[in-house]
Write a structure and sequence with these properties.
GO molecular function, one term: hydrolase activity, hydrolyzing O-glycosyl compounds
CATH topology: Jelly Rolls
Shape: globular
Radius of gyration: 21 Å
Largest sheet: 8 strands, antiparallel
Function: Catalyzes xyloglucan endohydrolysis (XEH) and/or endotransglycosylation (XET). Cleaves and religates xyloglucan polymers, an essential constituent of the primary cell wall, and thereby participates in cell wall construction of growing tissues.
Strand content: 25-35%
Family: Belongs to the glycosyl hydrolase 16 family.
Number of strands: 15
EC number: 2.4.1.207
Bound molecules: 2-acetamido-2-deoxy-beta-D-glucopyranose
Structural class: alpha+beta
Keywords: Apoplast, Cell wall, Cell wall biogenesis/degradation, Disulfide bond, Glycoprotein, Glycosidase, Hydrolase, Membrane, Secreted, Transferase, Transmembrane, Transmembrane helix
Oligomer: single chain
Number of helices: 5
Number of domains: 1
Order of helices and strands: HHEEEEEEEEEEEEEEHHEH
Helix content: 10-25%
Distance between the termini: 63 Å
CATH class: Mainly Beta
Length: 304
């Protein structure tokens, strides 16, 4: 190899190595979940009601859910999971979507069920939609938070994802954490840790409560209403049998169990704070008329 070329070669190798080390460091301290792998609808999901109101585009790379005055529709994951990373790309109903709700959530079965919810509440044309989240543990919810979007969710696809491990549940929108629910078992708050959950999504009419507290009704002359979905990413611990449930609950070997994913990092907390300060409409943590004393998890979640 000629001298200059060799030097250049060494330089390139050095840069590549440095880059590798740096991204390794970012990998240790940064907490953005692994990149989602887009798959067709059919790989992970099946319709759960009104299958005729779901249209598949591009072999299921995209699915469109339709709501008309006869029916809404919904789908669910084939499998149940205990911990993992789940994400969906959603383009909400364009134009007039008052009265309409899109839900994307994880839920277990039974009376003492656990649930992790995203709900998008539509609005009249030009009026802002609302993103509501909630967490149920052992059958108890009442932990609503509501924010406005920092973009128009009906214009383009945006990513809604949940990272759930033994340490926390993080809600992210396009990689911006909008909420975290830490495991606060040590201070008496139940945390979802042993009941497998399936993913569900639905589009339905909820004009008795969704928009301006139920005052704005669905305008059926604009039907059918369409919400579009893509990505369908699931990277979870499959928990179908008691043995698998045990393994998922105790293994601690998955990528989401590692140090980098046990808490948000400083940058993410700053982004979360930005969402809190600029876009929050309601937070049960600060609702003193409903909760005269601060719910304990709110302190740990830095939510007050
Ligand atoms: C709908 O628009 C009204 C008026 O701007 C607003 O008060 C409300 O929070 C918006 N969103 C929903 C889902 O009601």
């Amino acid at each position: 190899m000629e001298m200059m070329t060799k030097k250049y070669y060494d330089w390139v190798v050095g840069v590549i190595l440095l880059y590798g080390v740096c991204s390794g460091i970012v990998g240790v301290f940064g907490v953005a979940p692994k990149k989602a792998v887009d798959v067709p609808f059919q790989k992970n999901y099946v319709p759960s009601w009104s299958a005729d109101h779901i249209k598949y585009i591009n072999g299921g790379k995209e699915a469109q859910l339709l709501l008309d005055k006869y029916s809404g529709t919904g789908f669910q994951s084939r499998d149940a999971y205990l911990f993992g990373h789940f994400s969906m790309r959603i383009k909400t109903v364009p134009g007039d979507s008052a009265g309409i709700v899109i839900a994307f959530y994880l839920s277990s079965q039974g009376a003492e069920h656990d649930e992790i919810d995203f709900e998008i509440l539509g609005n009249r044309t030009g009026q802002p939609s609302i993103l509501q989240t909630n967490v149920f543990t052992g059958g108890k919810g009442d932990r609503e938070q509501r924010i406005f979007f920092w973009f128009d969710p009906s214009k383009l696809f945006h990513t809604y994802s949940i990272l759930w491990n033994m340490y926390m549940i993080a809600f992210l929108v396009d990689d911006v954490p909008i909420r975290v629910f830490k495991n606060s078992k040590d201070i008496g708050v139940r945390f979802p840790f042993n009941q497998p959950m399936k993913l569900y999504s639905s589009l339905w009419n909820a004009d008795d409560w969704a928009t301006s507290g139920g005052k704005e009704k669905t305008d059926w002359s604009k039907a059918p209403f369409t919400a579009s979905y893509s990505s369908f990413h699931i990277d979870g611990c499959d928990a179908a049998t008691p043995q698998e449930i045990k393994t998922c609950a105790t293994s601690g070997m998955k990528w989401w169990d590692q140090k980098a994913f046990q808490d948000l990092d400083g940058y993410q907390y700053r982004r979360l704070k930005w969402v809190r300060q600029k876009f929050t409409i309601y937070n049960y943590c600060t609702d003193r008329s409903r909760y005269p004393s601060v719910p304990p998890e709110c302190v740990r979640d830095r939510d007050i």
